[in-house]
Give the backbone structure.
Amino acid sequence: MRLWKKNGRVLATVYKSGLISTPNEVQLPSDLANDGHGTSLADARLKQMLDMCGGEIKYTQDAMMQAASKTASTLFSAHLAGQT
């Protein structure tokens, strides 16, 4: 998940699927990129919005992904320690 931010304000949340969620007052371009799918679509849309308005992208993980990462890290550490 990526957050498109400008001046400390979140303008949009862009998911790996290319889906975009915005606050009501944020207008997306009428010609929003629609070519591709998944992360390539998400990247194309982010680039288009950054070129149009500037700002920055912050990469984040949702709660489910954070939990999966923590579980994987714990299992990997246990494996390295010979506990599995």
